[in-house]
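re: ur question from earlier - yeah i can do the single chain one, its not a big deal. heres the input i used so u can compare w yours
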Amino acid sequence: MLQARGEDRGWITSYGGDVLSPLFLQWMFRRTLFACHRWGAEIATVCVLVACFAWEWAQIYPLSGTALNFVSGTFDPYDLLAYSAALATGYALERAARRKTTEPSCSLED
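and the output i got, formated as tokens:
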């Protein structure tokens, strides 16, 4: 949002969204789509990582005039590192929390 307004605040505007957005998506997917799945944390992490990598790689190609015209930006390999580090951290925190608590029951009989 800051970058869209033309403000440059260094690391925060360059990589802050690359760290926080995947973490939010991972959390959201884990709590909604994969809440009752035994491998939910793993599936959510892989899905978000694949989507983030695809988004970044799409920035390599000129997509104006196509259905993917909304993809803008410049490919930055450090974005891939930021996505990976954020999701690895989120996954590690999820695993640590899972060891301390039991998974909620998601059966229809409850």
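The chain has three helices and no strands. not sure if urs matches, ping me
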